[in-house]
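Appendix B. One record, verbatim.
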Amino acid sequence: MKKQILSLVLAGAMIASLTACGGSAPDTEGAKESAKESTAAENGTADAGTDAAASVELTVTTTFAGEDGNAQNFKNAVAAWEAETGNTVADTSATSDETFKTRVVTDFETGSEPDVLFFFNGADANSFIEAGKVVSIDEIRAAYPEYASNMNDDLIADSLVDGKKYAVPVNGYWEAMFVNKEVLDAAGVAMPGANYTMDQFKADCEKIKAAGYAPIAAALGNIPHYWWEFAIFNNQSPANHLEIPASVDDANGQAWVAGMNDIKELYDLGYFPENTLSATDDETFAMFTEGKAAFLIDGSWKVGGIVSACQSDPEDPATLDAEKLSHFDVTYVPGKGGDRKATDLVGGLSMGYYITKKAWDDPDKRTAAVSFVEYMTSDELVPVFAQHTASALKVAPVVDESQFNELQVKAMNMMAGVTSLTGAVQDLFQGDCRVPTFDGMPEIVTGKVDAADAVAEGLDLYNNQ
């Protein structure tokens, strides 16, 4: 129950923040001077500023890499911090996926962890928190009282291990449905709105399929995650979505089974790409951006990937084809007519900056690590990263929509209508227990494995681990 209440408080606060700030953020160069004041402030028993004459190198690992829209923002911010402090950063960032998560956990197990880590704050962090390999915010504040003082503590996630707060958040996330309007226009389908239902969605998919396009861009044999999440959510409510069923026979267990069968129905109707069981997620994403598929359920981070796909040079924002980008939009995931409304989305503040015990126990690195995290989570820099998503800042940044591209503005407008944000239950349902329904999705949708049996197997693994 405590988790449910916390989730609802988080959702309400984030929606208020999004509605209030939605928008503009200064670039990292413009924020540099004011951020410097924050990182070099007097902190009682210690000073977060660093002396260039005693420079140190921090190893920093984040997910700001690859197609992540903040990859370049992170590089710019690191360069600015290095110039101010005289310290250097060994950046070992990589795109977030299951391989990255495994690598981070393994690094902690082998003593190869970084000094500062931007990582998930849910179950993925349990092992290194249990091992005492990271330092809590309260412990850091004992030496640096102003650490993360610009954040609303109620929005900083508690560890699932001990209830303490470890990760200082920067930007939140949401998961919603991206739309290629060019495909919709060709099929005579209207842009979905806030009250979109699964019945309307299936009717639209039928028109899109008849027009020769794939209605849904998804690789069910590779990344079924988003459909898995929302299909289950559509048979539940924001109040109980984060409750993992005790068994396949209870109400929540049956909701999971219904969700898997809903995906199977869409597969049987031919609404996924013909190669959905063999294609990679990158391939189906390309179908979407190239105008071969209409709908894509994904996260807020995908805004950057879509924008890059509309640039002649994916690395150069100046090459953006604004007309091509105008064909893309983002809206709510259709509801099934039950307790979850279309405007109830999956989202949260799921990641943040950790300072490791290894860095904390090194007097020189301790000061530099605190300085680095304070810089990256300052009032001036957080909006650069949060953009069209959310943050835990106490003071919402001022909106200037002219600083954002068209898809980002559409995302802000969409988020202004969100009625709740609920965390992803798959983030709590970790490890081998996901295999029967994640890796086993091809067998479920083709009828080789009954959905109830797959769900039961996964729940048994979870409840017996």
